[in-house]
């Protein structure tokens, strides 16, 4: 099945400074800014559009339990994940299972923009955090 890069997630410590960098220095546009306190997310997110490319700037809202806080402690700020849009997430999950690629099942969710997403297990992706997503309501 076809996949295309949907966005790049960037772990940041200071969301306002990062927004400034992406909008005033790089020339991007702030598309949205919101908080998600859902378990396993616990982040403030700024979505930046830069000439048709999307970036999600991810800042932890809970330094104890947020996976973004844990990522920054372990690896520092920077690229957190690559997200690939797929035509049908449910079909892709079946294909992944057939290929022996595990997912982090507790990350399956729908965000406020209607994007369904799940993260693949980094142990099966050479350490890179990869998100698969689709937009079922836009079809």
UniProtKB/TrEMBL annotation:
Keywords: Metal-binding. InterPro entries: Glyas_Bleomycin-R_OHBP_Dase, MeMalonyl-CoA_epimerase, MMCE/EMCE_epimerase, VOC_core. It holds the Pfam family Glyoxalase_4. GO terms for molecular function: metal ion binding; methylmalonyl-CoA epimerase activity. Residues 4-135 form the VOC domain. GO terms for biological process: L-methylmalonyl-CoA metabolic process. PANTHER family: METHYLMALONYL-COA EPIMERASE, METHYLMALONYL-COA EPIMERASE, MITOCHONDRIAL. This is VOC family protein. It comes from Bacillus salacetis.
């Amino acid at each position: 099945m076809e996949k295309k890069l949907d966005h790049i997630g960037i772990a940041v410590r200071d969301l306002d400074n990062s927004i400034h960098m992406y909008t005033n220095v790089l020339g991007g546009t702030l598309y949205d800014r919101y908080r998600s306190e859902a378990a396993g997310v616990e982040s403030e997110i700024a979505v930046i559009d830069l000439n048709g490319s999307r970036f999600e700037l991810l800042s932890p809202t809970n330094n104890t339990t947020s996976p973004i806080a844990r990522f920054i402690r372990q690896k520092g700020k920077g690229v957190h994940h690559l997200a690939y849009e797929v035509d049908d997430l449910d079909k892709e999950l079946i294909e992944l299972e057939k290929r022996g690629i595990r997912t982090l099942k507790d990350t399956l969710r729908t965000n406020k923009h209607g994007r369904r997403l799940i993260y693949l297990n980094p142990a099966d992706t050479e350490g890179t955090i990869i998100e698969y997503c689709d937009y079922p309501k836009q079809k």
